[in-house]
Amino acid sequence: NVLVAGCTGYIGIQLIKLLINHKRVKIKYLCGNSSVGKKISFFDKSIKKKLPKITKFNKNKLKDVDLIFTALPNGEAQLISRNLNKNNVLIDLAADFRLNKASDYLKWYKQKHKALSNIKNSIYALPEITGKLVKKFSIIGCPGCYPTSILLPLIPLVKERSINLKNIIID
Questions:
Q1: What is the pLDDT of residue 145?
Q2: Model confidence, pTM
Q3: Catalytic residue among 7, 31, 142, 145
Q4: In angstroms, rounded to a whole number, what is the distance separating the alpha carbons of residues 126 and 27?
Q5: Phi and psi of 122, rounded to 5°?
Q6: What percentage of the chain reaches a pLDDT higher than 70?
Q7: How many CB atoms lie within 10 A of CB 38?
Q8: How far is it, in rounded angstroms, from Cα 61 to Cα 83?
Q9: Contact 82, 118 (CB under 8 A)
Q10: How far apart are CA 162 and CA 171, in angstroms?
């Protein structure tokens, strides 16, 4: 059972398109703010599957779901993470759990981290690299497209010592 918070943005819509094709996923809640009461097909006509109408996020919904996907502005997944139950896993598609130090988060995102105790429960994960290690964490921070395009080819080269680390330029 899945809840998608931030379902009407580009990333949220693309996520829903992937989830509706997964045989083991049931989308239980689609959450938004200004879109409450609308169907997801209002935002993308290609989504034909009958899905729940968009509702406002409420922490009580977390008891009915296993996975929470957040496709929200930076800082919002941190607030949701403070309400997770033991059976919940949060997969954040923004930057809230990409860094493992609050001071780095403040430095790069110019805002204080609002769920400091949850940083230790999170992993910055690229499944092709981290593999099953993600199962040990209740919060998964996902890299965006730019770091993914860099990390997938670069990490194996670094592990095999096939390149000089001093010569890496990413532009």
A1: 87
A2: 0.91
A3: 145
A4: 23
A5: -120, 160
A6: 100
A7: 14
A8: 10
A9: yes
A10: 20
CA 35 to chain centre: 20
The contacts of residue 113 (CB under 8 Å, 6+ apart) are 78, 96, 102, 105, 106, 119
Q: Is 31 a catalytic residue?
A: no
What angle (nearest 5°) sits at the alpha carbon of residue 10, between those of residues 5 and 15? Answer: 60
In DSSP terms, which residues pair with 4 in a beta bridge? 30, 69
Find the mean pLDDT for residues 50-66: 97
In the predicted structure, residue 4 carries a pLDDT above the cut 90: yes
Question: 100-142: per-residue pLDDT in tens?
Answer: 999 999 999 999 999 999 999 999 999 889 999 999 999 999 9
What pLDDT was estimated at residue 167?
81
Residue 43 and residue 35 in contact, taking contact as beta carbons nearer than 8 Å: yes
Tell me if 12 sits within 8 A of 6, measured CB to CB: yes
As given in the structure block, the two tokens for residue 167 are: 């010569």
Rounded Cα–Cα distance for residues 87 and 26 (Å): 16
